[in-house]
UniProtKB/TrEMBL annotation:
Annotated SUPFAM superfamilies: C-terminal effector domain of the bipartite response regulators (SSF46894), CheY-like (SSF52172)
Record protein name field: Response regulator transcription factor
Cellular component, GO annotation: cytosol; protein-DNA complex
Lineage, uppermost ranks: Bacteria, Pseudomonadati, Bacteroidota, Sphingobacteriia, Sphingobacteriales
Modification sites for 4-aspartylphosphate: 51
GO MF entries: phosphorelay response regulator activity; transcription cis-regulatory region binding
Signal peptide: none
Domain Response regulatory: 2-116
Species the sequence originates in: Rhinopithecimicrobium faecis
UniProt cross-references to InterPro entries, sorted A to Z: CheY-like_superfamily, OmpR/PhoB-type_DNA-bd, Sig_transdc_resp-reg_C-effctor, Sig_transdc_resp-reg_receiver, WalR-like, WH-like_DNA-bd_sf
One GO BP: regulation of DNA-templated transcription
Domain of life: Bacteria
Length: 223
């Protein structure tokens, strides 16, 4: 497994590089987002570990740029920022997971293995699914409705995908949080309801309501 680490703190990067090499991973280090961007133009990696606080372009901007360019490599964000809003910002930019510093190396290793498994599962999935007049293309990260493209943010698309893959089934808010955000957010958080509202605005038509609220439980996409 080829990993690119984007980290400017030599103490942390030395710790991660040494630990991953001892566990059989091939790892390359870039101390800035700009160096990482150039490296990614010439090399492919199985996974990226990106610090947020970087010189020049920060880790969130780098993540957003990679997703804009349709780079689907799994991304694990490292950060000393632990507030929920910071985690949401990173995940909305297209990151797959978020680990707060300081961390135990075994937790980092477990998260990398989970991302690796998730990526391998996706290789066997169909590249598109349809519900009613909606067509989701997972390779191209696109959604069309009656042939008309609908623009979704990376997090909106991931939420839509989860609902489509569980269509005609009730999913709880907690299930959505775990599957789409990959973190145990405060169960009192309304982030799921907010993003459901975003999706409804974009895909629900007056004659066709796809996303239904199941009071006291969660949501169901009918199709």
């Amino acid at each position: 497994m080829q990993i690119l680490l984007v980290e400017d703190d030599t103490r942390i990067s030395d710790f991660i590089v040494k630990g991953l090499q001892e566990n059989g991973y091939a790892i390359q280090l870039c101390p800035s987002a700009e160096e990482a961007r150039l490296c990614l133009e010439d090399h492919s990696f199985d996974l990226l570990i990106i610090d947020i606080m970087l010189p020049g372009i920060d880790g969130i901007q780098l993540t957003r740029l990679l997703r804009y360019k349709k780079n689907r490599v799994p991304i694990l964000i490292l950060s000393a920022l632990s507030d929920t809003v910071d985690k949401i910002q990173a995940l909305d930019a297209g990151a797959d997971d978020y680990l707060v510093k300081p961390f135990h190396f075994q937790e980092l290793l477990a998260r990398l293995k989970a991302l690796q498994r998730r990526s391998s599962y996706q290789d066997f999935e169909d590249n598109s699914l349809s519900v009613g007049n909606l067509i989701f293309n997972f390779d191209q990260y696109t959604l069309t409705q009656d042939g008309r493209p609908i623009e979704l943010s990376p997090r909106e698309f991931k939420l839509a995908r989860y609902l489509v893959e569980h269509k005609n089934k009730v999913v709880t808010r907690r299930q959505i949080l775990l599957a789409v955000w990959g973190l145990n957010f405060d169960t009192n958080s309304n982030v799921v309801d907010v993003y459901i509202s975003y999706l409804r605005t974009k895909i629900d038509e007056s004659q066709q309501q796809y996303i239904h609220t199941v009071k006291g439980i969660g949501y169901m996409l009918k199709g």
